[in-house]
Amino acid sequence: MQQEVIFGTPVWNIKKELPEGAYKWALEYKKNNPSDVSKSNIGGYHSLPSQNFSEIPYLSHIQDTLHILPKFKFDNWWLNVQKKGDLNLMHTHPMVDLSVIWYITENHGTLYFESPFSHQRRKLNLALNTGDCVKFNSNAGDFIIFPSDLYHGVDTHEFKSPRISLSMNLIL
User: What is the CATH number of the domain that holds 164?
Assistant: First the structure.
């Protein structure tokens, strides 16, 4: 596990192996649970948000991975499956404390976080060459955990194979 601090905010990056069958499960879930949910996503599949975590056959794997966090309860989860050209606009997750992304496929460095100070400190950021945005590259199996009020988005998917992640919110 790596804890990074970006814009004065902790972000946890946990490198894990993807459990066998997770990719197949995600595609099967999408097939059996059609959805036309549109939140921050432009294109792609976004399942209905669910509070039924028993639907996830890898829940014990997720719980074991998240044991490093302060005491929390699961709020909700959803599955994202994106094809070439799909993306997620910048957004936050209100009314919860932490957000988690579990990558079922590689994200090719497309997850980005925007500095909450980008407007007030733009000239300073440019002068110090610190930038207004930080990107994360994650492999299949990896977890990214961050405070839910941190602005984030996902750049356009450029590959023919799907980009798949399972996202969830936690309450401390």
Answer: 2.60.120.620
Q: Split the chain (172 residues) into runs of 10 and give each run's mean pLDDT.
A: 86 96 98 91 95 97 96 98 96 97 97 80 59 88 97 96 98 98
pLDDT of residue 169: 98
Split into its structural domains, the chain has a count of 1
Chain mean position to CA 129: 26
Say whether pTM exceeds 0.90.
yes
Q: Report the alpha-carbon distance of residue 146 to residue 121 in Å, rounded.
A: 22
* Alpha carbons 168 and 172: distance in angstroms, whole number: 13
Q: C-alpha distances in angstroms, 115 versus 8, 24, 122, 132, 150?
A: 9, 36, 10, 5, 8
Longest Cα separation, the chain? 51
- Alpha-carbon distance values, 172 to 50, 69, 73, 78, 169 (Å): 18, 9, 6, 19, 10
What pLDDT is attached to residue 20?
97
Q: Which of 169, 141, 143, 164 is nearest to 154 (CA)?
A: 164
End-to-end alpha carbon distance in the chain: 20
Q: In terms of residue numbers, what domain contains 25?
A: 2-171
**What angle is formed at CA 13 by the lines to CA 110 and CA 47, rounded to 5 degrees?**
55
Residue 83 is classified by DSSP as -
